[in-house]
Design brief:
The structure holds two protein chains of two kinds.
Chain A (H helix, E strand, L loop, with lengths): L1 E12 L8 E12 L3 E5 L6 H8 L7 E6 L8 E4 L11 H8 L6 H10 L15 H14 L4 E5 L7 H17 L3 E6 L2 H7 L2 E5 L6 E6 L10 H14 L8
Parallel strand pairs in A: 3-7, 3-8, 5-6, 6-7
Antiparallel strand pairs in A: 1-2, 1-4, 8-9
Helix pairs in contact in A: 2-4, 3-4, 4-5, 6-7
Chain B lengths: L1 H19 L7 H14 L1 H33 L1 H16 L2 H12 L3 H25 L3 H9 L4 H39 L4 H11 L2 H30 L5
Helix pairs in contact in B: 2-10, 3-4, 3-6, 3-8, 3-9, 4-6, 5-6, 5-8, 6-8, 8-9, 8-10, 9-10
The chains are: A alpha/beta, B mainly alpha.
Chain lengths: 246, 241
């Protein structure tokens, strides 16, 4: 059973000032299975964030349909934005607890803070955090609502390589503890290969699917950068059309 | 340093009063005596209290309505486009005109006095809060939406903290404005309060009393700033680096 079905005929941004009408997405179709980890890879500015906003129902002005989960129950969507978007006037812990239902158990928060190594920082205000820490808080916030679907919009961009790797490993750890459907946007193919079950390559505007490729390396072997690199080279050879998207 | 500068001001006043030797500028000591006598007789506290009550009532109404309308206009472009002209008109009606009209239309009653002050202050609050609402961080609003925040949660945790500086600005400028308008309201149509008393002293050319009341007045405003507004600022800005 698929967790997300996307069938968008078109998404147009209306003209503002001198900039004309902008066709962002055209005939975009794909579906994602329940519990699958899918990476969306495409050039920057292609409309990947727009797509996530459509799925999260932040933007409902488009033609087509998006189904998340089965129709009887509303699926909970956790959204990790490109910038952490923490409320600066609430502490780390308050930021996390705010998105949870009243009557939540504090053990979940404690546990997540522990995994993300933020227990010490839970009473700190976000302006005192480093970017890497803020990112981790925003990941915890999305996990805290125990989402059925997790949307992630380049959450590791502008982190230095070691920090990005560390947060990425923590993310995988969280995801393995409680598997759920993930849609992860990135323009870094190595990152996509490390994380995904399947990679969907998207074109520049107007955005549409170029190809879908399953990542066949077992998860256990993916921390080895050599293995990832070999797979990447092979991908680029087998699918020359994706080269221009990177 | 502030104590020193106040002492210098007092000294200048004293020297000037002695030099002029005229009861149109009494010495600080004379004013202090009047202040003491008025306080003991209960006159000063009574009239000050009445004015403060009017201040509290009109300020609360103006701030509450102003915040509600300001947020509504800031969030809704159509509403804003429709009422923008109204705002400009009400902003520019002279305070005296509103006061006179309120008294003419509703009689020389307490509610007319409060209404006159509210009508004078309200447009200022609306404009300030509307500006604040327009500057709300879109990213944080989207965050709230994506996690399905209730309207109350959104207001308390996302919107209000961002409006805080604008509310404080409206409060400070509001207090200063309302003080001055209330005195005119009282002077024109009430039989108690600071404005009424000042009018009385003016007719008697009693400068010492006028100065005594003025100083009491300024002291109260300083107290409000120090005891209420400053701590509020400090509490709500504790998260800043």
């Amino acid at each position: 059973m698929s967790a997300i079905d996307i069938n968008i005929h078109c998404k147009i941004f209306p003209a503002i000032g001198k900039a004309g009408e902008n066709l962002a997405i055209k005939n975009l179709q794909f579906s994602i299975d329940s519990g699958e980890f899918v990476c969306l890879v495409g050039p920057s500015g292609s409309g990947k964030t727009t797509l996530l906003n459509l799925i999260a129902e932040l933007d409902e002005d488009y033609e087509g349909e998006i189904t998340v989960g089965c129709n009887e129950t509303d699926s909970k969507i956790g959204y990790i934005f490109q910038n952490p978007r923490l409320l600066p006037w609430r502490t780390v812990r308050e930021n996390i607890e705010l998105v949870m239902n009243s009557g939540h158990s504090s053990t979940i928060v404690d546990e997540l803070l522990g995994v993300m190594q933020l227990t010490e920082a839970q009473q700190v205000y976000p302006e005192r955090l480093s970017l890497g820490m803020s990112r981790r808080v925003s990941i915890i916030r999305a996990f805290a609502i125990e989402p059925d679907v997790l949307l992630m919009d380049e959450p590791f961009v502008s982190l230095d390589a070691p920090t990005a790797r560390q947060v990425r490993e923590l993310l995988v750890k969280l995801w393995c503890n409680r598997p759920h459907t993930v849609l992860f946007v990135t323009h870094d193919l190595r990152e996509a290969i490390t994380l995904a079950d399947r990679i969907i390559f998207l074109s520049a505007r107007p955005m549409t699917v170029v190809s879908e490729i399953a990542v066949t390396i077992p998860r256990a072997g993916r921390h080895n950068e050599g293995v990832v690199e070999v797979f990447r080279q092979q991908l680029l050879n087998d699918y020359p059309e994706i080269k221009q998207l990177l | 340093m502030p104590v020193l500068s106040l002492l210098v001001l007092l000294a200048v006043w004293q020297a000037l009063a002695i030099y002029l030797n005229n009861n149109l500028l009494p010495t600080p000591a004379t004013v202090a005596t009047v202040f003491w006598l008025e306080s003991v007789s209960g006159q000063l506290p009574y009239h000050m209290g009445v004015t403060l009550l009017r201040l509290l009532a009109s300020f609360s109404i103006a701030m509450f309505l102003g915040c509600a309308i300001g947020i509504a206009l800031g969030r809704n472009k159509k509403l804003d486009a429709f009422f923008d002209n109204w705002l400009v008109i009400f902003l520019n009606v002279p305070a005296l005109v509103t006061i006179i009209l309120c008294y003419v239309w509703f009689g020389l009653v307490e509610s007319a006095a409060i209404l006159a002050v509210v009508v004078n202050k309200l447009p200022n609050v609306i404009v300030t809060i509307r500006e604040g609402t327009r500057r709300l961080d879109q990213d944080l609003l989207e965050m709230g939406c994506s996690f399905h925040f209730s309207a109350r949660k959104m207001l308390v945790h996302v919107i209000w903290p961002q409006l805080h500086p604008f509310v404080m600005a409206a409060t400070r400028s509001g207090l200063a404005l309302i003080w001055k308008i209330i005195l005119v309201v009282e002077l024109l149509g009430r039989s108690n309060g600071m404005g009424y008393q000042l009018h009385l002293f003016f007719q008697l050319f009693d400068v010492a009393s006028i100065l005594a009341y003025t100083i009491a007045f300024v002291a109260i405003i300083q107290l409000i700033e120090l005891m209420i507004l400053k701590p509020l600022d400090k509490k709500s800005l504790r998260w800043r680096r």
